[in-house]
Amino acid sequence: MMSPLISVLIPVYNGAKYLDDSIGAVVAQTFADWELLLLDDGSTDDSHAVLTAWAARDARIRLFYQPNDGKGNVARNIRRMCSEARGEYAFYMSQDDTMEPHCLEMLAKRAMALDADIVLPDMLLRYADGSCATWPCSYPPGGDHHLVLTPREAFYLAVDFSIHGFGLVRMRLMADERSDVRYYDSDEYNSRMQFLWANRVAFAPTTFYYYQGNPDAITHRFSPRRFQRLQTALLLKEAFEREFALPAERSRLMLILMKYYIDTTLLFYTHERELSAAGREEAVGIFRNFERQVKFAGYRREVLRHLNTYERTFACCYFFFGTTRPFAPLYRWIHRLRKGDSA
Questions:
Q1: Are residues 59 and 154 in the same domain?
Q2: What tens digit of pLDDT does each residue of 279-299 get?
Q3: Stretch 190-200: mean pLDDT
Q4: What DSSP string runs through 125-187?
Q5: Residue 338: what pLDDT?
Q6: Which of 73, 178, 214, 334 has the most CB atoms within 10 Å of its CB?
Q7: Are 108 and 5 in contact (CB under 8 A)?
Q8: Are residue 208 and residue 240 in the same domain, yes or no?
Q9: 241 contacts: CB under 8 Å, gap ≥ 6
Q10: Do 50 and 20 meet the contact criterion of CB atoms below 8 Å apart?
Q11: CA 97, CA 108: separation in Å to the nearest integer?
Q12: What is the pLDDT of residue 69?
């Protein structure tokens, strides 16, 4: 059997009610030279039955199973699927995502025309009622689908998601042994590094739909693993600092790190009472490690300039005290004021 050009990768955990739409979107593609790898990550709903039915219906669909380890590690699941994949390119999507019928065709044509390692479609947010919305990264910079980026240009833009990470990716990059699989959001770190490892990054005028209507999605539920975002942020910091040395370039990184820190601190304030003693100790250790390694001297004014008033309050606490963790009462007071203003 000849190898397909594209391996579509979908890990599945309790996604039965979405699978007909997501798998159906792949089967409906105008481009036929694909295989679809489905990894059942120990689902406890009807997912396996749905997956088995689809695999029996189309020989291009291959089904794998593994017990669920409770960690929800997307990067590890991608590595497992890549070890089984046969395509020259990979296209990753979540169990509830979909795409236009000509999406793979348009991506493949652009990749072949340019010999590009990565080609990105437009990405719209799709909700349960069928409506769609955009992110700042939904379209290529300037809306220019003819744009071709160098690895450094793409990585620089990807650091704050000025370009998104859902696209057609040369398999050798998706399966690269340098990829990290340790943390909750290692997949986001890996997608950024793939830009840096690519030969060139291109865009195609076709649409991928990132689903936002699943209340059980891991991005919508609290888990202590979400504090690991600060650990992947440090990996990103190391990679960025190897590539970019100018103050104007570094200020972009420092702003991103501050936003990560503030968001993660607010997560800690909101869910601290849900943590076990061991969970709290682990979270605090992650914060302390970040605080030891990230210093904002020389970038404070530039960082503050791009924050809103709410964020500046916590950024100033970090600048003066080296941490914001003791300021939960301040957060609750400001939160009450903000709720009052919006009432």
A1: yes
A2: 999 999 999 999 999 999 999
A3: 98
A4: EE-TTS-EE--TTSS-GGG-TT-EE-HHHHHHHHTTTSS-S-SEEEHHHHT-TT---SSTTHH
A5: 61
A6: 73
A7: yes
A8: no
A9: 250, 253
A10: yes
A11: 19
A12: 84
